[in-house]
TrEMBL record:
It comes from Limosa lapponica baueri. It comes from the Eukaryota. The keyword Repeat applies. The keyword Transferase does not apply. InterPro entries: Beta-prop_IFT121_TULP_N, WD40/YVTN_repeat-like_dom_sf, WD40_repeat_dom_sf. Keywords: Cytoplasm, Repeat, WD repeat. Residues 15-113 form the IFT121/TULP4 N-terminal domain. One of its GO terms (cellular component) is cytoplasm. This is Tubby-related protein 4. It is found in: Cytoplasm. It holds the Pfam family Beta-prop_WDR35_TULP_N.
Length: 119
């Protein structure tokens, strides 16, 4: 696993600065976030790692958390935007949270029914 992450990060660092990496064990997917807010979800296909999904809304990601069962992602952005999406990339819910403080991280409840944000 460590070699996979290092190979992907080496490839990505040629193009961008990776600031966040999250592994999805149930689905064997890797999410990386760059300094400009780009999110890349990687899968292994025919023995090679390939980008399956790209999401770039142009705002820095403060946290990316997979649900325990791996089916959902909770993404928090530094500008107060929060998004919940499926492992396949479908948006389930999003909201702009107007707060004086930045959201620093998100966490799922043990049953994966709710996500919480920390300021």
């Amino acid at each position: 696993m460590e070699r996979i992450i290092m190979a992907l990060l080496s490839w990505q660092e040629m193009k961008m600065k990776v600031v966040l990496v999250r592994w999805n064990e149930p689905f064997q997917k890797l999410a990386t976030c760059d300094a400009d807010g780009g999110i890349f979800v990687w899968i292994q296909y025919e023995g090679r790692w390939s980008v399956e999904l790209v999401n770039d809304r142009g705002a820095q990601v403060s946290d990316f958390t997979w649900s325990h069962d791996g089916t959902q992602a909770l993404i928090s952005y530094r500008d107060g935007f929060v998004l919940v999406g499926s492992v396949s990339g479908q948006r389930h819910w999003s909201s702009e949270i107007n707060l004086e403080s930045q959201i620093t991280c998100g966490i799922w409840t043990p049953d994966d029914q709710q996500g919480y944000k920390k300021l």
